[in-house]
Write a structure and sequence with these properties.
GHMP_kinase_C_sf; Ribosomal Protein S5, domain 2; four-stranded mixed sheet; ATP binding; 333 residues; 2 domains; alpha+beta; transferase; nucleotide-binding; Alpha-Beta Plaits
Length: 333
């Protein structure tokens, strides 16, 4: 029997990047793209390499194009790390695993290195598959922690819990990562949100702006750790913005949600160097009346639009500049 599981890209609606800094965020996953894992029993444990893992190239140009597409690292290190973390979790919690092995294949069409949580989607799909294969239940909060520990602990990638929480719950989630709760429980306070009053969201991205999340977070983490006042104030304000957005969501106040999304990006811009191409993408979206901010570390944006006329203008303006625009199919499992 082949076990097949899926996980989806994450869109950070508001509050990012404060999730790694005891802040608050709202995020959802959307099914326009997905990571897919197939796992089946075999005599030995085997990880099947995929496109991200190739080591033979036609020429140097092909190698460079592959690096520009996927970065320097493929998926093998992610899967190895996930196996190690899952196994150690089971040992620590006295969970007896059946004496059997598996082969795992994976693929993903999530645009890479655009702040859409493509790497954690692969990990989440894989962890789901191993849980089904070995008949192990892991609650969503712990599930998110385990996925994050692969990237933070095993691979040394600076990242926060937000992506993994949204992927674990597969519903829009309000997340509060206040320090006391994180230290006491090991995870934040999570509340699933009703999508009834969600505004019209769009997501746009340009693949030539890709960069890894570590590019942003490594520098920001260092500034946060030394207590830089400007960074601490920004983290506090992002938490406030998230609370205000949640209230606006309950009140169906689309105008306030629009303003808060814009403020989220403007605050980030005042704190972190942002490439010209990313700034232009945000400004183009705003030029037609839409709100705009990063979905993650850069290369993709999320925002709201008033109606179909505005969406048409948005799509036309961005498409003319080689920027793809989609309406996210929000997962609400």
């Amino acid at each position: 029997m082949i076990i097949e599981t899926f996980s989806y890209p994450r869109a950070a609606v508001i509050g990012n990047p404060s999730d790694g800094y005891y802040g608050k965020t709202i995020a959802f996953v959307f099914s326009n793209f997905m990571a897919n894992v197939q796992l089946y029993q075999t005599p030995e444990l085997e990880i099947k390499p995929q496109r991200l893992d190739i080591t033979t190239y036609k020429d140097m140009q092909s190698l460079v194009e592959d690096i520009n597409f996927a970065g320097y690292y493929g998926g093998m290190r992610l899967l190895k790390g996930m196996i190690k973390v899952f196994y150690e979790h089971c040992v620590k919690n006295n969970i007896q695993l059946a004496s059997k092995n598996f082969t795992i294949r994976y693929q993903s069409n999530i645009p890479l290195r655009l702040g859409l949580a493509g790497s954690s989607a692969i990990l989440s799909a894989f962890l789901k598959a191993m849980c089904l294969f070995y008949e192990v239940y892991i609650d969503p909060a712990t599930f998110a922690n385990l996925v994050l520990s692969v990237e933070n602990g095993e691979l040394g990638i600076s990242a926060g819990l937000q992506d993994r929480v949204a992927q674990a719950f597969e519903k829009p989630v309000f997340m509060d990562f206040n320090k006391k709760t994180m230290e006491e429980k090991g995870h934040g306070n999570y509340k699933v949100l009703n999508t009834t009053n969600f505004p019209n969201f769009y997501i746009a991205f340009r693949k030539d702006l890709s960069e890894g999340t570590e590019t942003i977070h490594n520098n920001l983490k260092a500034r946060f750790n030394i207590g830089e006042e400007k960074v601490l104030e920004a983290m506090n304000r992002w938490g406030q913005i998230t609370e205000e957005f949640k209230t606006a969501l309950y009140n169906n106040d689309c105008e306030l949600m629009h303003q808060l999304i814009d403020e989220n990006f403007d605050l980030r811009r005042s704190l972190i160097t942002i490439s010209k191409g990313n700034i232009e993408m945000v400004e183009m979206a705003r030029s037609v009346g839409a709100s705009a901010k990063f979905t993650g570390s850069g290369g993709a944006i999320i925002g709201t639009y008033k109606d179909e006329l505005m969406y048409s203008k948005l799509k036309g303006t961005l498409n003319n500049n080689n920027i793809e625009v989609i309406k996210p199919n929000i997962v609400n499992n």
